[in-house]
Each structure stands twice: as structure tokens, then as C-alpha cells.
Amino acid sequence: MLSLQEIEKIYFTEENAVEAVTDISLSVEDGEFVSFIGPSGCGKTTVLSIIAGLIPPTSGRILMNGTEISGFSKETGYMLQEDYLFPWLTIRKNIELGLIITGMHNEDTVEKTMSLLAQLGLGDKADAFPSELSGGMRQRAALVRMLAPEPSLLLLDEPFSALDYQTKLKLEDLVSHTLNSQQKTAILVTHDLSEAIAMSDRIFLFSTNPGSIYNVYQVPETFRRMLPLEARNHPEFHPFFQRIWKELENVENQHPNTP
Ligand SMILES: Nc1ncnc2c1ncn2[C@@H]1O[C@H](COP(=O)(O)OP(=O)(O)OP(=O)(O)O)[C@@H](O)[C@H]1O
Ligand SMILES: [Mg+2]
User: Fold this and answer.
1) What is the pLDDT of residues 190-216, one digit of tens each?
2) What is the pLDDT of residue 258?
């Protein structure tokens, strides 16, 4: 569904040029859930922003369903760590804005979206303002807003990192279930290796200076299709975690300048 070919990004500042990522080639299958992990500064957000069309690559190509794309695509939904709901709009208005921007605002899509909001336990919060919701509720509202225009590719940049552990585990299950039932394709960026393992079909480990793909792991068949909380309790989860953890440490030790 999505294919990146030899993506390179150099950031030019007034004083110098930073090669953020180089030679990123990867494909994501239709309906697949993949994660990007790696040390701080290895270019995960950069690659996600390039896929979202927020910034252009310096070189390389992005294909979606076989067609080269550049810039923003209606097929793509993006959700950042800060949920970026507009504070002056109610939850309902925030969500409807996503539909209006993408030209998909009609009775049918509004009704579907409000029913998803109710499914995610926010049926009575539609007319509340973001400041009246908890962090986890805002993340769920942001999720509904992202899904409202029915994008087929979802990009999630550390969507759970601001949440407490309990809420995060619950949201992982909820997101996993929602995306699976709608057969979405998704890319998750996370600092949390166990989250990446619990949620993904495949994991891309990045190394840094400049950012590139260091290794790719297929999550074991035995727990791949389980909900994250169940997967975390599977006996094969921990050995798999240990294996990637070691390589993550190798990558970080190669570049001791990163925190
Ligand atoms: N707008 C920018 N201008 C210049 N350099 C940038 C810019 N954005 C990112 N960089 C540099 O590009 C590299 C990759 O940054 P990026 O934000 O993609 O990393 P990341 O893997 O998402 O890190 P983190 O895990 O900390 O979020 C870093 O060296 C960073 O300093
Ligand atoms: Mg980042």
C-alpha cells in the first residue's frame, strides 16, 4: 500500500546542514500495523512527517497504492503526541472540522462519527470543551477526529506517551481493536518497545547519525493477532522483547552522544 524508496532528508539551517535520514526504503502492506523505534533523533518523526506530506524529502520517492505522491493526501490521517484539539471548539465541532476540511461533511459521516465517539465512551462529551476532558478522553476524541474522514493510512507519533500507564494500556487495546475492525494500515512511532511489540505486525528499528533502518522484526505469529494487553502476557512476548532490547542497546551504544 505504501512504499518509500531511498528517502533522504537534509535539514538546512542558517549555519549548517543536518542529514536527518538517509536511504530509507520500506513498504507497508494494506491492513498492516508497523512501528518505528530507535534512539532520540534517529529521524522517526521526520519520516512520518514526510509520509504525511508535512515536509518534502530531499530525495527519494513515496508511492501510495502504486502512485507517486507528494504533499498532503486525503488518504492519510495524522495524530500527534499533543492531541491538538482546538480548545475553543467543543468535541463535536473539533471532529466536524476534520470532516469539513476534507470535504466529507454530510449527515451520514457526522452520524457515523458520533456513533464512533459513543463507542469509545465519549457519547456524553460531544458538547464539552477539550479542557473539560481528561488526557485519555482527549486522546480518544483526537482518535475519532483522525478517523472521521476515513483515511486508509494512519500515522501515530507517540500518541500515548503523555498518559498514565493504566490509561495507556486501555487505549492501546481500544486503538488496536478499532483499527483492526476497520482494516486500517498504520504506522506508530513510540519510545516504548513493549508497546511496539504488543501493537505491531512488524517493527523497524532505526539507528542514528544519520537515521537509517538498522533492522526489521516480524512479530511472532503466536501473539501477533492478540489484543495488546493479552499479547503482553503471552509467554513468547518477553523473550522477543529481550532480543530486540539487546539490539536497541547496541544501536544506542554505537552513538553515545544520544541520551
Ligand atoms: N526542523 C528541523 N530543522 C533542523 N533539524 C531538524 C529539524 N527537525 C529535526 N531535525 C533534526 O533531524 C534529526 C531527526 O529528528 P526527528 O525529530 O525526526 O527525530 P526522532 O527520531 O523523532 O526523535 P525523538 O525520538 O526524540 O522524537 C535530529 O538530528 C534533529 O535535530
Ligand atoms: Mg519524534
Assistant:
1) 999 999 999 999 999 999 999 999 999
2) 47
The domains found in the chain, sorted by start residue, are 2-75+152-254 (3.40.50.300), 85-151 (no CATH)
Ligand 1 atom with the smallest distance to the CA of 55 is: 1
Nearest residue (CA) to ligand 1, atom 22: 45
Measure the CA–CA gap between 241 and 220, rounded to whole angstroms.
11
* Whole-number Cα distances in Å, 61 to 112, 187, 208, 231, 234: 35, 18, 21, 35, 39
DSSP character for 125? G
Task: List phi, psi (to 5°) of 139.
Answer: -65, -40
Question: What pLDDT, on a 0 to 100 scale, did the predictor assign at position 57?
Answer: 96
What is the rounded CA–CA span in Å between residue 98 and residue 110? Answer: 11
Q: Spell out, as residue ranges, where the chain has pLDDT lower than 70.
A: 81, 83, 255-259
Helix (H, G, I), strand (E, B) or coil at 218: strand
Rounded Cα gap, residues 195 and 199, in angstroms: 6
Residue of 9, 44, 252 to mutate, ligand 1, most atoms within 8 A of C-beta: 44
- Measure 105 CA to ligand 1 centroid, in angstroms: 35
Question: Could you tell me the three cell numbers for 77?
Answer: 490521517
pLDDT of amino acid 136:
83
Report which protein residue has its CA nearest ligand 1's atom 1. 11
Q: Determine the pLDDT at residue 257.
A: 53
151 Cβ closer than 6 Å to some ligand 1 atom: no
